Amino acid sequence: MLFNSIEFLLFFPTVFVLYWLLNKNLGYQNLLLLVASYIFYAWWDWRFLSLIIISSIIDYRAGLSIHNATSPKARKSWLLVSLIANLGFLSIFKYYNFFAESFTQAIGVFGWQPNDLTLNIILPVGISFYTFQTLSYTIDIYRKQFSPTTNIINFFTYIAFFPQLVAGPIERASNLLPQIEKKRIFKKEWFNEGILQILIGLFRKIVIADTLAIYVDTIYGDTGLYNSSTILLATIFYAFQIYFDFAGYSDIAIGTAKLLGFKFHQNFNLPYFSRSLTEFWRKWHMSLSYWLRDYLYISLGGNRKGIKITYRNLMLTMLLGGLWHGSSWNFIIWGGIHGVVLSLEKFIKSKPQFKFLDKLAFLGGPITFLIVIIAWIFFRAQTLDAAMTALKKVIFFKPGMPFMGDLNVLANSMIILFIGLCFDYYLLKSKTKLEEFGKNFSIAKISIVIGFMILFINLFYSSSNNFIYFQF
Fold first, then answer.
1. Per-residue pLDDT tens over the stretch 36-70
2. Chain Cα centroid distance, residue 25
3. Of 67, 265, 325, 338, which one is the catalytic site residue?
4. Could you tell me if 23 and 109 lie in one domain?
5. Is the same domain home to 205 and 180?
6. Is residue 1 part of a domain?
7. pTM of this prediction?
């Protein structure tokens, strides 16, 4: 079920009313959330509910067994059960065909032509997100940073909680489970903040991201047909399309959870105003960034084993972060670009002889944005050949008029993007968190803002698409 669908518009108010009618019984509330979450996911394909349920059963048992184990060997064995089961599901459904195709191509160099090894596999929506979420639970218990729950309904609800089930934010058990296990109180302030954040998310997705997508999809449909200016414009549009699409999803998820009495962590914090790639990754898809840092980078040794090992760990983390997004060499290259630049930034920062670069800090923002959009080429292009074609046209730039296409689409894209950037710039300069926007507005002012968003959401709704991160 999509947040930007009529079905969800009917589904959520029904859940909301029933949920708060049950506020005197926490057990019934959580059971309702679990059933609603399974309905929400099953709306796409009920068959894949079995994966979530099996994963939940394994990790519920593994968490208790790790906690109660009397020997290090037993604790490690149960952690391995969790890792093998969850990563096994992820590998089969998301990566099997990628590795099978790569193997076939590799041995084809030697003249061998094996039978087709690929399988007709459907990628379950959200598997990357809920796999990382449930793994953080067993790993935290293994590290003795969290104690397992003994209530299976509460744990299943934590794994399947519908606001963030299919595209995050990836919530740690240490934040979400305690909220599930304690009584929630309806707060009018949270209700107002949640409604406004949902509308902002829908505006970002439906009005901005989906409008930009029309031009981007046309150009990236065949990068060989268009000139350098067109490819560059489409790539810039895509940079903001994916940001407003995914940040919009996160806004809706956070706002929806808040209406139910839950507080999620922030997932985006104005990343395109970053002055370095290191800062960018502290502000972009923050729940994934911190997950990779805490469970992969630190587990590899972080920066504790010397500078060379640190660079290795950064590269492995970003390469695997790229692979997490999809089974394609494009995503691996995207992660590799980020890994190289992050390592370079760390190298420059560690050398006193580069101190003079502090005087050029004002160039950090434009340079960071340029690196990010170059990497986005690989993220957006459908094939490696298409990405390389686009990259060559951007690097060996030849001035020319960009493809205009439908002038109404281009004009709408420019105007809507300008509105979105102005809003983000306002948040930056006023040092206002998104969830606090409008907090001190008068009723008249906030009514105008809400009316403006509802009007535009209705005007642009007919062209709304799936959220980009549903494919990951």
1. 999 999 988 888 899 999 999 999 999 999 999 98
2. 33
3. 325
4. yes
5. no
6. no
7. 0.91
